[in-house]
Amino acid sequence: MAEKQTAGRDNLGDFAPKFAELNDDVLFGEVWSREDKLSARDRSLITVASLLTQGVPQLEAHMKIAKQHGVTKDEMVELITHLAFYTGWPKAWSAFGLAKKIYQD
């Protein structure tokens, strides 16, 4: 089951309370919790793939979440290798740097 998310409120609650509420309660509370439709592990793979293609800073946090959801190092390496041809070599290099740090154990 998806864990209760508070990152929105923790980081933006005072500054952008509605955005924080939508992040924590709707995105993570309602969408991510629909594990009968798609597992948290699969959602993590999809999210990492999407963020990798966009080259956004949230990629690192979601790679860590993916690892917690059971995505293995080999699966992450394969995901990045596969997407390198669709999203670009520099983004893949950057993603490998993050993955290497996250999966170093």
UniProtKB/TrEMBL annotation:
Residues 17-100 form the Carboxymuconolactone decarboxylase-like domain. InterPro entries: 4CMD/NDH-1_regulator, AhpD-like, CMD-like. It comes from the Bacteria. This is 4-carboxymuconolactone decarboxylase.
